[in-house]
C-alpha cells in the first residue's frame, strides 16, 4: 500500500470538447424511432419534464410535458370484483406543453416528412444539459431555411424550462410565420394492449383561466377527479429584422404567440421562450395565486436571460458530475452509455421538492407514470451516494403518504402500514393483486432505503421527522403479517417476491431477508431513540417482538441441491421446458399464461440473486456461487430490472465476462432500446442498475453493515474504472486499474479520515493522502454459469 | 335378513291431497321478498324457464324468461391485462317474455301495491307442476276483482309454456282491459357490486321480424355478438261475455293482444296464452323458418288445449316422482324442502336437448347464467340415478364443446382439453384466473361424471360417441400438466381446488385424486375399447403413461397432525383468527382480502371433505374421522356448496346430528334464503346436495367402485327415509327405518336380480322379492367436531 497526493487525478468531469461520450446524437437516420428518441432526449429537473419531441410537435411518437405528481384518477373495473381491489388508479397526464414552436415558410408548414431534409441533427449534451437541434430544410416549394434550437429544463430553477429557436433564410427571401404555443390537452395516441403501457385519458385538464398579454401568457387548468390545479406561464423574447411583427391570442386550452416577418438570406429570426410550471391541490392555492406565481417565475427567467440559464445549467451539472461521473476506460460505447445513464439519474430527482421518482421519471408515461419499488431498490441506492438530498426528498414523499399506507393496512386487515405497489398520489393503484398488493416487499424496500440513507448520511433530523416512523410502521406490518410455526421459525406466507413469474409464495427469501432487516433496523433505531420511539407508541415489548421475529426468520434452503430456494419449495417445482420455447416466445408473459409461469422454475428477473445483492452478508461465498449458477440457468431476464443484480453477483463470484455483458445489457437498455419499450419512457431502474453493476459489481462495494467495503475486480475490457460516492458528507473517489485500487477524499480537509475496507483489510484515507493498494488476483471461479438457451446476454466482454 | 313382496309399500308419490309437503305457498306476507319468491316459483323444463314473476310483471324483483343456451357476449376488460385472459364473456339474457298479462279495472292498473289486497296467494304445486295464483283486489276506486291464474312450462313439450288467466268481477260491474304481452328487451335492474351477481346488458335483442295476426303473434330477434336468433310465438284463447272484444298490435319488441269488456258480478273473463320458444344459430336456421316453427308449436298447444297440457304435465311428473321422490318421515318442513329441491332438479334438465344445466338452472341470472363445475360434481351425480338421459344430455353438451376446450388448452400451452371454469357458449368466461382457469379440477369433474354415468347405465353408445373422447382428452390434460419429482411421485402444482379461500396451491388432494380417477378411467376405457381409442390416437404407451401417473399421484399427508393436507403445506399455514372475526365479517370474502384468505387455514367450502365424499375408497375410516374434525374446525361454509359434502362425511363418521343440521342447511338454502342470494336464482347444486346428503349421507350410498353399496344410518329426527335410484335400467327402492333397511326392485320382472352391498355384506334383490335387513348400531364416534365459533349450522337435529 502506498499513498500519494490527492490531486494528481484529472477532475472527473474532464474530457476534451470533442468527446462523444458526453453526447447523444441522432440524425435523419433515426426518424423511424421517434418515440424512443423522445425518451432518450427527455429533459427534466425532477419537477418539470419535457419529452424530446421536435420543436414543431410533429412528427411525434408520444407528446409529454410533465410536472412531478400531476395526475388524474380513473376508474378501475374488474370482470370479477374482490374485496379491497382498488377502484381508482392514478394516471400521469401532460401539463400544458410550452415546448411547441411551429414554423411556416411561405405558408408551408415545416414538417421534416415533406420537402427535402438537407441536414438534420439533434444532440443531447450531457455536460451542458441542453438538447440542441440543427436542421436545414427545403420546403416543397423550394424555400430553404436553417433551424437551430436549444432547449433546457433548468436544474437550479425548479419551475423553469426554456427554448431558444432560430430560423435563418438560406438561399432566397422567405416569408416566415412562427407560432409559439402553450397547449393544454394535447392529443395522445391510443392505448396499446400491452399491460406495461399507459392508459391515457382524453382531455384530462379543464381550463380555469387563460390570459395573454403581449409576449406573455398563462394558463390555469384543473383535473376533475384528482383535485389538482396546474398553472403554466410563458414569456417570450423576439429578435429579428424590423419587418417582424408579433400577435398574441388565447383560448382556454392554448396561448399562442405568432411572429411573422420576411427574412433575406443570412438573416435570422430568434424566438426565446421561458416557461414556468407549478401545480397545487385545488383546495390549496387559488387559481389567481398560482397564475401569479408562475408568471413571476417565467418573467424572472426572461429577465435573467437564456445565457444565464445556460450558465447556471452548466454550473449545476459540473457540480453534479463531480460526484456522478463514472470513468470507464476501454469501452467508449459503454462509457457514453454510463454517462447517459447518470445524466438521466441527475435529472430525475431534486432535493427541494419532497417528491419521488417514478419508474420512468419524467421521460414518458409508461406504467401510467407510477412509482414502484424500483425507486427504493434501484434508484435510491445510487442517489444516496451521489445526491443524498434527492434520496431524502423521495423518502420524505413516502413519509407524507403514511396516512394512506396506514389506511390501506387497515383495509387489508393488516397491522402498521402497507405502501402501495403502484401509485402517484399515495393510494394503491395496482389492478392485479397477485403481482401488486401481494408484493409486500415494497415496504421492506422502503425501510431499506431509509436505513441505507441514514447509514450514508447520519441525518438525524430526517430520522426524527420521517425515518423512524417509516421503519416502525413497516416493522409493524411484518410483525403482524408473519406467523410462528411449531418449530419456532417465523414465516411470511402468501406473498409475491420480485420475480413476477411467481406469485403468492411462502417465505420468499428476498422478502424474508428484507423484512428481517426492516425489523432489526426498526428495533435498533427505536432503541437508540427511545423518546422518539415512545411517541410512536413503541415500547420494549414491541421491540423485543421485532427482534424475535427477525432472529427466527426462516430462509428456505434445499439441502439436497445445496442451493437456497427463491421461495419455499421453489426447487421442487417443475422445470421450464426451454427446449420447446422459441425465440419468439419471449417475453414469456406475452406467450404463456401465469398458470404455467407461476408453477414452474422459470424466473423473470433476479429474485434470489437480488437477495444476495442486497443482503450479501446472509450468504457464504460458496452459497453465492452455487445459487448464481442455479438461478442463472432459470432466469430469462424478461424484466429490465434483472441484468444489474445478476451482473453484481456474477462479478462477486468471479464470472467477470458474464458480469460485463450483463452490465452492458443494463446500461444499454434504453440507448439500444433492448426491450423495445423505450418509447414509453426510460427504464430508470436499469440505468441506476448500471451504476450498481459497476460500483457494487466491479467495485465490489458492500454497505449492508454500516461500513463501506470494496472487493474490486475489473473485467478484461476495462483498463480503468473510476467513480465517486458521498459518505458521511465526504466525497470518496475510487480509481481502479487491473493492478491498483486508489482511494481518495479529493475535497476533504487534510485531517479528515475515512475508513473503508479493501478485500477484507482496513484502509484509512485522509484528506491529505490518497491510498493506493494492489488489486488481488481473482480466483478462477470455474466454468461460467449457463443462461437459458438463447438467453445469455450479448457477448461483448471479450471484444 | 328376510324377504317380502315387492308391492306392500305405498307408491312413492302418494300422499293425501292436502299434504302441504307437496306445495310451496306464498301470500301477501311475502311481498317484501319478491326476488326470492320469483326464483322459488320459477317454472322450467330444461329448455324454457320462466321466473315466478306476477302475471302483471310488477312489482317485480327481477324479470327473467330464459331459453337454455340463449346468451349475449360482452367484452371483459382488465385493469392489468394478462396472456390468455378471456376477452369476452357470455351473459344469459332473457328471451321475449310471454308470461305477461296486465289488467286495468275501470282504467286503473292492477298493482297489488295499490288499492286493497283482500287476499293473495300463490302456490307452486310440486305434483301437478303448475304455479297457481288467487288474488282478490279492490282497486283504489273501490272496484273488486278476483284474479286466478295457472301457469306451466310444459315438461313433455320442450318449447311450450302457457298461462290461463281469469278475472271475475266481485261486487259491481267493471270495465276491464287485459293486455297480454310478448315483450322483448324487458328492463332489468342495475348490476350490483357483488361479484356473484350478474352483469345484465341493456336491450340485448335486435328485432328481425314481428308479426301479429288475430289472436296469434310471433317475434324474431337476434343477438349482436353471440350470433343467436330467438323466436317466440304466442297464441291465445279468449272466453268471456259477449261484450268482450279483442285487438292485436305489434311493434318490433312487443306483441300485444288487448281484450276489453264489461263484467257483471260473478261474470268471468278467461284468457289462455300458449307460447313456444326456440333459438338457433343465426347462420343455422333462417328467421322465417324459426318463426314458422314456433308458430306451429304454439298453435298445436292451443289446439290441444290447456287442460291437455295440464294432464300431460301431471303424467310427466308422476313418472318423474316415481324415481325422484324422497320420503322423509319425522320432519315435515324438511320433507317439503326435499320435494321442492327434487322438483327443481326435475325441471332443470331434459333428455332431448343436448344442453346442460347452469348453476342457477333457468331460475335466475346469477353467475351470469354460467355453467360451472357444480353441474358435474353436484347435479349430475343425482340425475345419473334419477334421470340418466338428462345426465347424458348434459355430458353430450360438454362433448359438443370439446373443440373450444382443445383450443383453450393450446392457448394455455397445455395438452388435451381444458374445459372452461365458467361458460354458456363453450369458451372460458372467467375474469379472475386464480379462481377460474386455475381450477383445472373441472376437467376431472367432467370425467368423473362420465364414469359415474357409464357405471350406472352401461350406455355403450354414449361411450363411443362422446364418453371415451371426454375421458381421453381430459386424461391428456393431466398427463401433460403434471410432473414427476425425483422421488418418483407425480404432482399437480399451481392449481386451485374447490375451496375458494385458497388458490394456486400444489397437490390439492381433491384435484389429485380426481385426476387420478380420470387417468385410470381413461386407461380402463381405452383398454376395453382399443379400436375406439385407436381412432383417438391413443396407443399402449399413452395408456401406460396415464397409469403410471395415476399410480404415482401424490396425496399430501401431515404425519405429525395425522391429517391429510387440503394441499401441500396447508396444515402449516397460519391459522385464521376466529376470535377476532365478528359475525358481520361473514362471508369473509366481502370483508377480507384474498391476501389474507389464501394464506391462512380458513376454508370457504368442503375441499378435502369433498375429496373424501367423492373418493371414499382413498381414505381409511380413521383418517376420515380425523380429517373431518380438523377441517370442520376451519370451514366457514361461505359457499352453498359446502354443507352437503360435510353432511355426507359427518354421517359416515357417525356424527348424525351434525349431519342432519348440515343437510337441513343444504336443503333450506333457497326456501329459507340462507345466503340472501336466492333472488338471483336457485342454488341447484345445494338442492342436489340435499339428495346426496340423504342418500350418500344417511343412506350411505357409495358408488366409486362400480357397484352400489349402502351403509345406512338414520339420524334421530328421521323415522323413515325412502328413496329410489336407477341402476342399469332398474329402479331400486331403498326404505330405511331405525331398525330395518328394505331393498326392492318395484318395477322389475321377477327374475331380475341386482346385487348391492349393505354394511359390507352382499344383498341380492330380485324383482320378485324385496329384501329387508337390520340396521346395525352406529358406533359412538366420540365428541362432535367443533365448527368455527358461531358457524355451526342451526341445530334442529334434536328438536
TrEMBL record, chains A, B:
Keywords: Glycosidase, Hydrolase
UniProt xrefs under InterPro entries: 6-hairpin_glycosidase_sf, 6hp_glycosidase-like_sf, Gal_mutarotase_sf_dom, GH65_N, Glyco_hydro_65_C, Glyco_hydro_65_M, Glyco_hydro_65_N, Malt_Pase/Glycosyl_Hdrlase
Record-annotated active site: 500 (proton donor)
Binding of substrate, residues: 373-374, 604-605
Residue span(s) of domain Glycoside hydrolase family 65 N-terminal: 30-279
GO biological process: carbohydrate metabolic process
Protein name per the record: Alpha,alpha-trehalose phosphorylase
Gene source species: Micromonospora chokoriensis
Amino acid at each position: 500500500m502506498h499513498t500519494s497526493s490527492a490531486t494528481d487525478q484529472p477532475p472527473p468531469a474532464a474530457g476534451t470538447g470533442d468527446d462523444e461520450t458526453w453526447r447523444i446524437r441522432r440524425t435523419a437516420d433515426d426518424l423511424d424511432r421517434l418515440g424512443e428518441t423522445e425518451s432518450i432526449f427527455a429533459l427534466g429537473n425532477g419537477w418539470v419534464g419535457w419529452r424530446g419531441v421536435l420543436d414543431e410537435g410533429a412528427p411525434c411518437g408520444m407528446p409529454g410535458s410533465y410536472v412531478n405528481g400531476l395526475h388524474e384518477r380513473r376508474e378501475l373495473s374488474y370482470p370479477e370484483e374482490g374485496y379491497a381491489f382498488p377502484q381508482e388508479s392514478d394516471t400521469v397526464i401532460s401539463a400544458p406543453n410550452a415546448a411547441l414552436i411551429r414554423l411556416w415558410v411561405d405558408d408551408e408548414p415545416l414538417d421534416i416528412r415533406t420537402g427535402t431534409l438537407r441536414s438534420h441533427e439533434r444532440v443531447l449534451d450531457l455536460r451542458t444539459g441542453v438538447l440542441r437541434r440543427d436542421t436545414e430544410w427545403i420546403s416543397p416549394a423550394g424555400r430553404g431555411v436553417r433551424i437551430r434550437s436549444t432547449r433546457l429544463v433548468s436544474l437550479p430553477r425548479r419551475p423553469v424550462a426554456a427554448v431558444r429557436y432560430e430560423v435563418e433564410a438560406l438561399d432566397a427571401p422567405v416569408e416566415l410565420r412562427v407560432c409559439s404555443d402553450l397547449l393544454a390537452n394535447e392529443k395522445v395516441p391510443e392505448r396499446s394492449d400491452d399491460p406495461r403501457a399507459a392508459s391515457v385519458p382524453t382531455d384530462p385538464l379543464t381550463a380555469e383561466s387563460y390570459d395573454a398579454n403581449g409576449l406573455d401568457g398563462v394558463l390555469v387548468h384543473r383535473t376533475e377527479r384528482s383535485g389538482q390545479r396546474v398553472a403554466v406561464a410563458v414569456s417570450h423574447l423576439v429578435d429579428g429584422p424590423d419587418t417582424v411583427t408579433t400577435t398574441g391570442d388565447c383560448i382556454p386550452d392554448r396561448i399562442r404567440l405568432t411572429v411573422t416577418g420576411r427574412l433575406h438570406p443570412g438573416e435570422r429570426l430568434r424566438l426565446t421562450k421561458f416557461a414556468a410550471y407549478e401545480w397545487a391541490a385545488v383546495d390549496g392555492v387559488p387559481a389567481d395565486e398560482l397564475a401569479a406565481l408562475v408568471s413571476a417565475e417565467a418573467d424572472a427567467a426572461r429577465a435573467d436571460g437564456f445565457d444565464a440559464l445556460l450558465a447556471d445549467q452548466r454550473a449545476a451539472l459540473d457540480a453534479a458530475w463531480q460526484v456522478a461521473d463514472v470513468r470507464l476506460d476501454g469501452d467508449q460505447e459503454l462509457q457514453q452509455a454510463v454517462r447517459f445513464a447518470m445524466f438521466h439519474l441527475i435529472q430525475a430527482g431534486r432535493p427541494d421538492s419532497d417528491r419521488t421518482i417514478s419508474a420512468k421519471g419524467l421521460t414518458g408515461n409508461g406504467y401510467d407514470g407510477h412509482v414502484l419499488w424500483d425507486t427504493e431498490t434501484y434508484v435510491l441506492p445510487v442517489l444516496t451516494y451521489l445526491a443524498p438530498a434527492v434520496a431524502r426528498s423521495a423518502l420524505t414523499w413516502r413519509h407524507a403518504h403514511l396516512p394512506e399506507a396506514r389506511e390501506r393496512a387497515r383495509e387489508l386487515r393488516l397491522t402498521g402500514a402497507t405502501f402501495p405497489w403502484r401509485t402517484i398520489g399515495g393510494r394503491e393503484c395496482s389492478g392485479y393483486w397477485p403481482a401488486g398488493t401481494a408484493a409486500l416487499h415494497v415496504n421492506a424496500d422502503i425501510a431499506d432505503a431509509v436505513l441505507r440513507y441514514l447509514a450514508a448520511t447520519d441525518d438525524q433530523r430526517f430520522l426524527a421527522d420521517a425515518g423512524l416512523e417509516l421503519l416502525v410502521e413497516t416493522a409493524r406490518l411484518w410483525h403482524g403479517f408473519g406467523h410462528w410455526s411449531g418449530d419456532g421459525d417465523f414465516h411470511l406466507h402468501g406473498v409475491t417476491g420480485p420475480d413476477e413469474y411467481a406469485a403468492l409464495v411462502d417465505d420468499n427469501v428476498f422478502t424474508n431477508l428484507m423484512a428481517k432487516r426492516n425489523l432489526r433496523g426498526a428495533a435498533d433505531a427505536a432503541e437508540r431513540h427511545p423518546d422518539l420511539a415512545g411517541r410512536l407508541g413503541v415500547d420494549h415489548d414491541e421491540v423485543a417482538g421485532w427482534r424475535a421475529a427477525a432472529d427466527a426468520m426462516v430462509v428456505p434452503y434445499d439441502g439436497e441441491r445445496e442451493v437456497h430456494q427463491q421461495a419455499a419449495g421453489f426447487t421442487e417445482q417443475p422445470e421450464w421446458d426451454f427446449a420447446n420455447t422459441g425465440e419468439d416466445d419471449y417475453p414469456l408473459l406475452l406467450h404463456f399464461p401465469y398458470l404455467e409461469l407461476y408453477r414452474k422454475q422459470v424466473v423473470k428477473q433476479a429474485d434470489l440473486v437480488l437477495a444476495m445483492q442486497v443482503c450479501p452478508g446472509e450468504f457464504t461465498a460458496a452459497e453465492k456461487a452455487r445459487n448464481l449458477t442455479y438461478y442463472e440457468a432459470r432466469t430469462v431476464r424478461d424484466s429490465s430490472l434483472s441484468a444489474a443484480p445478476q451482473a453484481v453477483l456474477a462479478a462477486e463470484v468471479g464470472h467477470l465476462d458474464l458480469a460485463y455483458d450483463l452490465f452492458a445489457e443494463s446500461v444499454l437498455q434504453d440507448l439500444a432500446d433492448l426491450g423495445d419499450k423505450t418509447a414509453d419512457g426510460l427504464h430508470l431502474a436499469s440505468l441506476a442498475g448500471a451504476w450498481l453493476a459497476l460500483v457494487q459489481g466491479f467495485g465490489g462495494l458492500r454497505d449492508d453493515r454500516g461500513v463501506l467495503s470494496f472487493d474490486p475486480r475489473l473485467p478484461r475490457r476495462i483498463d480503468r474504472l473510476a467513480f465517486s460516492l458521498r459518505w458521511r458528507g465526504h466525497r470518496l473517489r475510487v480509481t481502479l486499474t487491473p493492478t491498483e485500487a486508489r482511494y481518495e477524499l479529493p475535497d476533504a480537509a487534510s485531517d479528515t479520515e475515512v475508513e473503508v475496507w479493501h478485500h477484507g483489510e482496513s484502509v484509512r484515507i485522509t484528506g491529505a493522502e490518497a491510498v493506493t493498494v494492489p488489486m488481488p488476483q481473482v480466483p478462477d471461479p470455474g466454468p461460467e454459469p449457463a443462461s437459458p438457451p438463447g438467453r445469455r446476454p450479448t457477448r461483448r466482454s471479450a471484444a
